[in-house]
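hiii, so i know i said id send this last week but things got crazy w the move. better late than never?? heres the sequnce for the chain we talked about at the cafe, plus the structure i predicted for it. fair warning i was half asleep when i ran it
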Amino acid sequence: MLDHVGFPVANLKRSRDFYTKALAPLGVEVVLEGDRWVLLGRDGKGELLLGLQGHPPGSIHLAFRAQTREQVRQFYLAALASGGREEGVPGMRSQHLSNYYGAFVLDPDGHRIEVVCHTPSEL
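okay and structure toks below
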């Protein structure tokens, strides 16, 4: 249903660096970019648009799907190493769904970023 999601950031370079490093375990990379925006995605398809705005950004929650629990753990470590702040260590979140393995960080603008794997167990 959705083609891409966009949201404002306060510092484009800082956010670009954070997201390209934190989401690298999921295969995310820069697809296109301009002076005031950057489009990230996989396989050449833009899915996440970060852009500079004339006003401070508000807080949002984004959840990215991982294929494995290891990708969730890799995201978490990469996000923290890239300037993210811990908001929920990798682990089961059975209060959401029975096979919900996720991790949460706050990005440099305070957005809550999650990566979740719905696979029942490691294969």
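btw The first helix runs from residue 12 to 22. thought thatd interest u
miss u guys!!
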